[in-house]
Amino acid sequence: MTTTRAKWLKWLGPLFILGAVAAFFLVNRLTRPPAPQAAEEWARRTTSDGACSAEFPLAPKRDTADDGDRLEYAREDRGTSCLLAFSDLSEKDAAEPSDVVFALLRAKYVLTRTPAGAPVKLVRDRTIVEGGYEGREYQFAVGDQFVSRIKVFVNGRRVYRVIAVNPPDATLDRDAQRFIDSFRFDKLKP
């Protein structure tokens, strides 16, 4: 019986050591702080028509379509996104008074940026003028899921917009507001 016990101990000793080493690496991996993210280096990016720009925390992706241009930066791990874009209104919509156009745009942003069934609260709706362009600034709270900040300007048929979306968080709110506030027209309206 002692030989059987000795055989077991002969195998259990190395297995115990191997298990302890594996447990050490597993615990070390689980308790190690996450690797640092790439440092954000805010830089100004301009739309393809050269009319306006905004500062992005990292390089955005450009998407050019027939009706406009989009610069978008998203951080899936933070649930944030920043968008600088322009597009053209239909002739019918462009013929409407500016208040109607802005109301249509505000309704569109609520519908396209809101998960189905989420309660939306308009926090800010104010008239603004930048670079000679008339615009509106909106802020929406979508339940406790995220905050959406929007500045939109209309020049004839062309619509310029800057949008920042983030979950409620002091640091993310600060970065989103920095992005929105960095918007400017590089070509002033005559």
Range of helix content: 25-40%
User: Tally the helices: what do you get?
Assistant: 4
> What is the fold named in CATH at topology level of the largest domain?
Protein Transport Mog1p, Chain A
Which residues sit in consecutive blocks of at least 5 with pLDDT less than 50?
A: 8-30, 32-38
Give the class from helix and strand content and strand pairing: alpha+beta
Quaternary? single chain
Number of domains: 2
Tell me the total number of β-strands. Answer: 10
N-to-C CA distance: 101 Å
The CATH class name of the largest domain reads Alpha Beta
Mean pLDDT: 80
Estimate the global geometry from the Cα principal axes.
Answer: globular
The proportion of strand residues reads: 35-45%
Rounded radius of gyration (Å): 26 Å
How would you describe this protein?
With 190 residues, the chain is an alpha+beta fold. It has two domains: 1-32; 43-185, 3-Layer(aba) Sandwich (Protein Transport Mog1p, Chain A). It has four helices and ten strands, in the order αβββββααββββαβ. The chain has helices spanning 2-31, 91-94, 98-112, 170-181, and strands at 43-46, 52-56, 61-65, 68-75, 80-88, 120-130, 133-142, 146-155, 158-166, 184-185. A seven-stranded antiparallel sheet has the order 3-4-5-9-8-7-6, sandwiched between helices. A three-stranded antiparallel sheet has the order 1-2-10. Strand 8 (146-155) and strand 9 form a beta hairpin. The longest helix is centred in the N-terminal third of the chain and has 30 residues, at 2-31.
Keywords:
Protein Transport Mog1p, Chain A; 2 domains; 7-stranded antiparallel sheet; 3-stranded antiparallel sheet; 10 strands; single chain; alpha+beta; 190 residues
